[in-house]
């Protein structure tokens, strides 16, 4: 571990972890440049996820960025994660659950951003702190201000506990030393050690978002999906549907009464539009019904909104089509005409 000195740099927390772990700092390697056009960061192969779950279909966002100024304190060494405030939110500004532009409810889970070993997990003056070593990658992630801890308390990886991307680490809390006492997750990405902290914001745009792992939802690639109603015709779509605008991912439509899976689809950047067209009855003129075969993978079927439930998984744009094909092969939805496994004969 000499190449990965897992100590938080700067402030009371750094001194605390230094005393507890007595980790020596090695010479940091120079960071590689990150460009906005990189589809998958070459330093971080494999599956990476946001360290905060989705909440009621809402995607977490960065509420305070890397190296933001702090009066009387060093510049921000990581990013803070919350949820963007919506008009319907009841969390008052100035409370632990609400800032002017962002909110954070109780009992929101913190998850591992990538596979790795728990290097440290322990209380600190700023709340529970966790470090995950992602060896053999020269990378580690740091999670601060947790309220509860779901992994074994440890120092210097003594527990040898391994976690997978999306696995539960604990729940979001607050920094007791912060006068605002605002609930949020402080997250850092290290490429070599704490002295090699980088701004993760651009890289995180390509990471998956998972639901609450305590319900077994959307964590493992073969995990179950969380189905929700989308309302009746003429009603506004729920906020979790509206927040899919501009996102990429897959969606599953099932019969609300029988739970039969009807259709699996995907979008590489217009997830809201692609999903909601299935509830626009004017599309029935296409006459793409079950038992008929049409060009393309989308039969154009429409469904009554109040008779179905929908599950969504947000992905990177370059993962959406592959994930759709995998789910069609595995789950065999009733109305997908192409992509089904071939058994004994072709259907024409």
Describe this structure as you would to a colleague.
The structure is a single chain. The protein is α+β, with helices and mostly antiparallel strands and 348 residues long. The chain folds into 2 domains: 11-207, Glucose Permease (Domain IIA) (Distorted Sandwich), CATH 2.70.70; 225-331, 3-Layer(aba) Sandwich (GIY-YIG endonuclease). 11% of the residues lie in helices and 23% in strands. It contains 5 helices and 15 strands. It has helices spanning 11-21, 201-204, 239-242, 271-276, 320-331, and strands at 60-64, 79-84, 102-103, 109-111, 116-122, 128-133, 140-149, 162-163, 168-172, 185-190, 197-198, 228-229, 248-255, 261-267, 308-315. The strands form 2 sheets. Strands 1, 2, 3, 4, 5, 6, 7, 8, 9, 10 and 11 form an 11-stranded antiparallel β-sheet that branches. The longest helix has 12 residues, at 320-331. It starts with 10 loop residues before the first helix and ends in a 17-residue tail after the last helix. 39% of the residues are buried.
Write the layout of secondary structure elements.
Layout: H1 11-21, E1 60-64, E2 79-84, E3 102-103, E4 109-111, E5 116-122, E6 128-133, E7 140-149, E8 162-163, E9 168-172, E10 185-190, E11 197-198, H2 201-204, E12 228-229, H3 239-242, E13 248-255, E14 261-267, H4 271-276, E15 308-315, H5 320-331
Antiparallel strand pairs: 1-2, 2-3, 2-10, 4-9, 5-6, 5-8, 6-7, 7-9, 7-10, 10-11, 12-15, 13-14, 13-15
């Amino acid at each position: 571990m000499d190449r990965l000195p897992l100590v938080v740099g700067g402030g009371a927390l750094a001194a605390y972890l230094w005393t507890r772990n007595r980790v020596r700092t090695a010479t940091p390697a120079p960071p590689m440049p990150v460009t906005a056009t990189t589809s998958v960061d070459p330093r971080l192969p494999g599956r990476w996820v946001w360290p905060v779950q989705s909440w009621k279909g809402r995607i977490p966002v960065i509420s305070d960025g890397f190296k933001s100024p702090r009066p009387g304190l060093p510049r921000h060494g990581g990013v803070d994660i919350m949820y963007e405030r919506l008009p319907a939110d009841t969390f008052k500004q100035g409370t632990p659950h609400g800032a002017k532009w962002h909110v954070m409810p109780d009992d929101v889970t913190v998850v591992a951003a990538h596979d790795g070993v728990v290097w440290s997990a322990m209380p600190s003056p700023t709340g529970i702190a966790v470090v995950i070593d992602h060896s053999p990658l020269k990378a580690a992630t740091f999670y601060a201000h947790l309220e509860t801890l779901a992994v074994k308390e440890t120092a210097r990886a003594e527990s040898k506990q391994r976690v997978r991307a999306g696995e539960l680490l604990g729940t979001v809390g607050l920094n007791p030393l912060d006068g605002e006492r605002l609930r949020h997750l402080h997250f850092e990405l290290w490429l070599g050690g704490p002295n090699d902290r980088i701004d993760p914001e651009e890289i995180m745009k390509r990471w998956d978002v998972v639901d609450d792992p305590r319900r077994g939802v959307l964590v493992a690639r073969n995990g179950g999906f969380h189905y929700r109603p989308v309302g009746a015709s003429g009603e506004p779509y729920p906020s979790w549907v509206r927040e899919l605008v501009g996102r990429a991912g897959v969606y599953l439509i099932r019969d609300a009464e029988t739970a039969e899976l009807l259709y699996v689809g995907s979008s590489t950047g217009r997830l809201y539009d692609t999903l909601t067209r299935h509830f626009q009855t004017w599309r029935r003129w296409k006459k793409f019904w079950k038992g008929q075969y049409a060009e393309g993978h989308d039969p154009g079927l429409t469904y009554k909104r109040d008779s179905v439930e929908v599950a969504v998984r947000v992905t990177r744009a370059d993962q959406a089509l592959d994930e759709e094909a995998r789910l069609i092969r595995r789950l065999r939805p009733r109305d997908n005409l192409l992509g089904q496994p071939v058994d004994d004969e072709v259907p024409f």
